[in-house]
Amino acid sequence: EYSLPKEMASFAPVIVEQDQLDQEQADFVHEILEVAAPPTQQDEVIVRNILRYLQILKIAGRHVDNRADYVFHLRPDLYWHDDLRLPGLVVPVLGIPRRLTGMMTASWGGGKAPNDRFALLSRGAVDDYFFRIHRFKEFLLSGLGFSAENFLGFAMSRHKIRPVIRATASRVRVGGKIAQERFRPTRMGRTR
Pseudo-torsion of CA 163, 164, 165, 171, nearest 10°? Predict the structure, then answer.
């Protein structure tokens, strides 16, 4: 059972069908595949799935209240192993929020790019996070290694990225199977 804040009383979910996403993106997918020149059918599937996710992010971004100081985004397919704690977000003595700039992400993932499972965003980082699909072609042409995490780092490069959220969460696959994860520390360098 959940207790939702009164501000969410008017919340209405937006349902988007995969066929609708595919139709809206048909031309863009072909354009991206020409740039990416994926060598295998598996790479084409990965590109299509990433583009679907980025389109869903864009739709979600349209529903973010522009008065929000912070926005927390998480993938809907996560199983949480720990309580979610946001280090450094509240001044301990006063109990008031600190000024957050940029993005806080998971402190694990093992790579040099930010983990893309969930993020706490400052108001100034919201558009670059949710509307990053507009920079996908630019990212592919950049020559950086192709991954969702590298693309997130590329899209958020104007912002401070802090991999400090220690709570762990595994992906839940179709059929309910929880993916085996390795929660290695992120090895990101300093950003902004």
Answer: 30
Helix (H, G, I), strand (E, B) or coil at 40: coil
User: Which of 63, 65, 47, 64 shows the shortest CA–CA distance to 15?
Assistant: 63
Do 191 and 160 touch, CB atoms closer than 8 A? yes
pTM over 0.70: yes
- Give just the sign of the alpha carbon dihedral 42, 115, 83, 2: negative
Task: Say what the alpha-carbon torsion angle 67, 127, 120, 108 is, to the nearest 10 degrees.
Answer: 180
Per-residue pLDDT of the chain (192 residues; tens, 9 = 90+): 445 556 655 566 777 888 888 888 887 877 777 776 655 677 778 778 888 899 999 999 998 988 888 899 998 889 999 988 877 776 666 655 677 889 999 999 878 899 999 999 999 999 999 999 999 989 988 988 888 899 999 999 999 999 988 999 999 998 999 999 889 888 876 555
For residues 98 and 160, is the Cβ–Cβ distance under 8 A?
Answer: no
What the block records as the tokens of 162 is 């802090």
- Cα dist. 149→6, 109, 110, 162, 187 in Å? 34, 9, 11, 14, 12
Contact between residue 74 and residue 118 where contact means Cβ atoms under 8 Å apart: yes
